[in-house]
Design brief:
alpha+beta; single chain; SH3 type barrels; about 110 residues
């Protein structure tokens, strides 16, 4: 029986030291850093540019909504735009978050 207990005592792995623990966590840290720089940071930059574009929109700017509707801003309210669409000068109120982009003018 004593030989068996000696065998079990030798089979137990040694407790990892501080350096071994760091080396075992290093792949997870590198994966998180790569995910941040490849996914999160570019998305935040794109979101900031979109918010900057929304704050710069004024009356008379041509826009495209996320639904694909082209129109011209006729009025700017606190949380929405009044947009003129179509040949009949129909007006729609749309939320500021639903503006996809500003249409580039030919001369600009």
């Amino acid at each position: 029986m004593t030989k068996f207990s000696l065998f079990l005592a030798q089979a137990q792995p040694a407790a990892p030291s501080g350096m071994q623990t760091l080396m075992s966590l290093l792949p997870m840290i590198l994966i998180f850093a790569a995910m941040y720089f490849l996914l999160i940071a570019p998305q935040r930059k794109k979101q900031k540019l979109h918010e900057k574009m929304l704050s710069a929109l004024t009356t008379g700017d041509d826009i495209i909504t996320t639904g694909g509707i082209y129109g011209t801003i006729t009025s700017v309210k606190e949380d929405r735009f009044v947009v003129r669409v179509g040949d009949n000068n129909q007006k729609l109120e749309i939320g500021k978050g639903f503006v996809h982009a500003m249409v580039k003018k030919d001369g600009a």
